[in-house]
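Hi there. Long-time user, first ticket. I'm pasting a complex I've been working with (about 424 residues overall). I'd like to know whether the download I got is complete or cut off, because the file seemed smaller than I expected. Thanks.
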Amino acid sequence: MPDDRVLSALRDLVRERDWAQFHSPANLAKSVVIEAGELLEHFQWDDDADRGEVADELADVLTYCYLLADALDLDRDGIVLDKLERTKSKYPADKARGVSTKYDRL
Amino acid sequence: MPDDRVLSALRDLVRERDWAQFHSPANLAKSVVIEAGELLEHFQWDDDADRGEVADELADVLTYCYLLADALDLDRDGIVLDKLERTKSKYPADKARGVSTKYDRL
Amino acid sequence: MPDDRVLSALRDLVRERDWAQFHSPANLAKSVVIEAGELLEHFQWDDDADRGEVADELADVLTYCYLLADALDLDRDGIVLDKLERTKSKYPADKARGVSTKYDRL
Amino acid sequence: MPDDRVLSALRDLVRERDWAQFHSPANLAKSVVIEAGELLEHFQWDDDADRGEVADELADVLTYCYLLADALDLDRDGIVLDKLERTKSKYPADKARGVSTKYDRL
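Hi, the file is complete. Here it is re-exported in full:
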């Protein structure tokens, strides 16, 4: 089970501001990629990025991911564990070891 | 504290496959936006998307977000809660209620 | 004036397949970022990408950009030249020389 | 042949500012998706976007696409026409008519 405090806090934020009306799954999916682009911006010209700024942008990506999971009644950690199990069987350790091309599709 | 099972499972997956060598913060940030684009693909032409397919892509986005947080030694739920506190003070409920423009920068 | 052959060919493709119904500016904007993510995929784990594959993905990004420009009746080369003039005055050569941070917002 | 004025103007801008050093294909590909995210931002909460603001962001996406094409010595309109020919044969008008799913991969 994911941390309920996070989900509760996010739901409170949204409810108190009446923002649920904007949070269709489609709008949240757009928001995830928009914030992901802002995250990448910190790595646009070189690989050194300010840890605090990355944390800030990563928080935005995660926030929209969590809201999208909630909107679709998905357990955000559950879907990660499910996918991870499929990845394990799809890319057996002995075959995928050290081969990035093996998992361009993690 | 976020769910340790998830982080442990992700770390095992990566260690067993010797994939850490590919997981620079910059590469993980690229991976987050790449997977976010695949997530959005399910909403490309209309707002109805298959819940299972969305869960699958959302899991990929979250996976790379979690790996990036881990690579930078960030508590993935902690940064969300921190940002949420700042959002609350930035957009007071009484002022931001029902106004999307107020939070184009959640 | 941009190459009319390209625009004409794109319009023919769309008209012959009755695809204009899917080409709202919003859907085309989503398509641009989706294809941009696929383009970046070729640089996900290292900086060496297959030139032909990059050309293929870049063509998709450009195609949706051109369709979006056309949907909004924008001259695709005209807007680039306009923006370029503003960038020039915003980042005078003598001040911006060799400074990437100066133009994180090209 | 694409409009040479655009390419010449872009090359001048970059040369005068000594920015070529930042323009590896990988960095330009990141820049394309970053700007594509900013473009989508104008459609984040609804489908109505300010035409001028969209033109501005679209110009940024195109600029980085043109620079990437130039960096790889690709004719930006040529690759679009090539891809278009392949799309035509892949999705015959009679089969693809009005079917968006037919070209989720344009």
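A couple of notes from our side: Chain B has two domains: 1-74, 75-106. The two ends of chain B are 23 Å apart (CA to CA).
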